[in-house]
């Protein structure tokens, strides 16, 4: 009896079949040449008719605006003089097949005996489209551009980078969101994208640390990604050179185009995506533009959109890819082409100045930390002609030997930058990013201390990092700083920088060894951190290492961005316990000290 039942099922499958699909099916070979009819009525659900012949059979596809998961329908198909009726509550007629795909909003019908020039009419729930099986498409494919800005900023710390890439709750509705969701959906569905502001010196190192650049290079090579050079404004043309520098450093293609942030494009906002993909309003807009053959740009402010949620973006792009009369393209969005065939070398100062900023950095912060330019100017003069000595100005002292250079800010009595020849050892966090704390905490009356979240230098007083010190020369390469009952001394020796304190207290050392190393593929894997009794070393494998030596009991902690790298290999977990280094800028390590009166701290190789 069971055998007879199975034979009956097989016969039904052969003679007539109906399949209901709730998820998008893999893309098959429907082409723009199969497009036969377009419904010009915006009020109707039946939008397009596609026909192709497979051997002696006709395959007919009806594209709808919306098809429920369990649709109730009555479909009548006429092929020349033969009529076929399909109902949701009945099996398909013999030797026919019907596939219902509610994810792609399509009905696909296969009919037998399809002669050349067959005339086909489809009537669905009272709406009709008809065409010849061998007719011509009623319209050329509609060019679409997917263009996004505000794609990946800020991303100066591991925490920021992971939240831009694959965050747990950063979407407009509190859902998972990040650039990964958009790139995965676009690559899966072969939809090309233009990301206007991704090619920057703060985004690319972070993407490399996330392991994301392989996908970006792959999509570029496949023609699925356009990354123009980024220029902050026409007055800052060197920002474009820095963008090119970063792109070349990471083996990215030169698109030949430039995006100027101060002239961001006006892209009409669209309703948010949902788990069903495009909302009905966007689907209607697509068909209206197809009828008028008016190219359309979708996208806009990425971080304010739902495009970064993969479970929304994937069904939207699958729906679009299934419709060959829409043609997503790159290169059609109006961007000025770069005139230069070459760019001048990027100076360390320009790189440091521009790598610390995102296109939306508050200009008041930039002004508050403008002394950074003075530091680089003094450093370059010393590197061009090293000499020992001490020069003090209003807020700064420059302490140097033939080998070492220290920039000392009297507002806090701290070393902001330290170099051994061409190798940088110390840096403030502001060299990598401005605006680490919430904007509500900024106090511009404090100048270079406007952002309390910044680490403005090394050896500052923990209880008052902006305490004003007076400078006094202590020797040819020695500087003594005093403030009320406080005193600290900085001395350059053959071993490095010796620092002594006359009072106990908390302080820190901000290590950033050769930070330009981060502008090369795999940079994060070349840094290493060593913790030994009384010593902490940070630097590059087969490269310079900077060591902090202090009484063993003085070293309280060593926090590094390296501690965060294992967390970048997975989506953000809001319940994970995060190391302090997760919130430090790339590529910083901070050594925290509790010094006693008379303690000597040595910074050396």
Structural class determined from secondary elements: alpha+beta
CATH classification, class level of the largest domain: Mainly Beta
Major sheet, described briefly?
8 strands, antiparallel
Number of strands: 33
- Count of DSSP-assigned helices: 11
CATH domain fold name of the largest domain: Beta-galactosidase, Chain A, domain 5
Average per-residue pLDDT, rounded, comes to 88
Helix content: 10-25%
**Total domains:** 3
Outline the structure in words.
This protein is of the alpha+beta class and 605 residues long. It folds into 3 domains: 2-132, Immunoglobulin-like, CATH 2.60.40; 142-329, 7-stranded beta/alpha barrel (Alpha-Beta Barrel), CATH 3.20.110.20; 361-604, Beta-galactosidase, Chain A, domain 5 (Distorted Sandwich), CATH 2.70.98. Helices cover 19% and strands 31% of the residues. The chain is built from 11 helices and 33 strands. The strands form 7 sheets. An 8-stranded antiparallel sheet has the order 23-24-25-26-33-30-29-28, with no helix packed on it. It has a 6-stranded mixed sheet with strand order 1-7-8-4-3-2. Strand 14 (229-231), helix 6 (238-249) and strand 15 form a beta-alpha-beta unit. Helix 3 packs parallel to helix 8.
